[in-house]
Amino acid sequence: MKRWKLWTSVVLGVVMLLVLGGSYNLYRNYKSMLKNISVMEEENGQIEDQKKDVIEPFAMLTYGISARKHLNDPGHSDTMMLALVDPQEVKITLISIPRDAYVEIPGYRTDKINSTYPRGGPKLMISTIENWLDVDVHAYTSINFQGFIDLIDLVGGIDVNVPRRMVYSDPYDGTRVRLEPGEQILDGKNALDFVRFRKSNDGRHDSDYARMERQQEALKALSNKITSIRSIPRILNMMNILSDNVETSLTPKELEQLIRIFITFRPESLETHSIIGGGHYINNGWYEIVTEEEVERINTIINDFFSKSNDI
Q1: Residue 247: what are its φ and ψ, rounded to 5°?
Q2: Is 194 among the domain residues?
Q3: Would 91 be classed as within a structural domain?
Q4: Region of poorest pLDDT, from 75-84, 144-153, 272-281
């Protein structure tokens, strides 16, 4: 493996984990790894050595926060995904969760799932998902708006296909969206608009599922763009961005193990799914009702992921 190819593999693996789980501790640990990585050669055995201390496959909640400090807004979980991470096979499966899903919230009434964050933070979010999807969630990771914007700008934007004209403005919170249809490169601000857009000033609305598809498209585009990074200073800049804007409950030891393992991660090892529901008005509010059959379908995806991992 050429040296620069090794570095781009490292960057891709690290950022995939950082988008799903990063912190200042990871940045500190990663700096201490640079000497070890720089002396690695192309022999497969040296890469395999990094997998000796493999942690078990696990589920992790990853979400984006829509907090706005100038509005004293604690924020909601604007984007929510369940990440299934398999360190043994070096693969990740993302399951997008509709923010308006109508679910039972432990200790509260049945409500939209994105209301769990302001009520009880990641702890309540995790307990709600565990009860709903019958899955043990090992950890959580969150990234705020600014971190997303800065990360996209650092890699020079992402290549996406804007499906239609998107125009929306809200003088209250300062939101201004203006995107024209077609394939294009979006900078951080416009990429954030692309993944968040749901309603237009002309009265046309996108479904939550169209929004989730755009979020998955953006994440895959980011994964592909990262493979072009060859500069160590840019890698360290990326670590600084994420350490300032990302929070995780993964321990420093887990993060270090995952970085070493995911050196060989490739974009094609990222699989995506979405939880699908039906829109209904309940008590003067719009909710996504997810049927028991749909929950069972997602349970099958989760169970298959872990059963295949256990068979390795």
Answers
A1: -130, 140
A2: no
A3: yes
A4: 75-84
H-helix segments, the chain = 3-20, 24-38, 44-48, 116-133, 145-154, 188-196, 208-226, 232-245, 252-261, 292-311
Count structural domains, the chain.
1
CA gap 92, 273 in Å, rounded = 11
Cα of 242 vs its chain's centroid, Å: 13
Alpha-carbon distance of 92 to 210, in angstroms, equals: 22
Residue with tokens 């300032």: 244
Pairing of strands 182-186, 158-162: antiparallel
Does any domain span residue 112? yes
- Structure pTM? 0.72
Residue 42: its pLDDT value, please?
38
The answer to whether 118 and 76 are in contact (CB under 8 A) is yes
In the beta sheet, which residues pair with residue 162? 182
List the one residue out of 139, 10, 168 whose CA is nearest residue 63.
139
* CATH at residue 246: 3.30.420.590
Question: Mean pLDDT in the chain?
Answer: 76
Domain that holds residue 98: 3-151+226-311
The two tokens of residue 239 are: 């670590």
Closest CA relative to residue 64, chosen from 152, 167, 179, 132:
152
Question: Do the Cβ atoms of 166 and 178 come closer than 8 Å?
Answer: yes
**In-domain check, residue 147:** yes
Q: 3-state secondary structure string, 235-285?
A: HHHHHHHHHHHEEECCCHHHHHHHHHHHHHCCHHHEEEEECCCEEEEECCE
Selection from 256, 222, 250 nearest residue 238 by Cα: 222
Number of neighbours of residue 50 by Cβ within 10 angstroms:
18
Highest mean predicted confidence (pLDDT) among 1-10, 156-165, 279-288: 156-165
Q: Judging by beta carbons within 10 Å of its beta carbon (0-12, 13-18, 19+), is residue 239 exposed, middle or buried? A: buried
Cβ–Cβ under 8 Å, residues 62 and 20: yes
The answer on pLDDT for 107 being more than 60 is yes
CA 305 to chain centre: 18
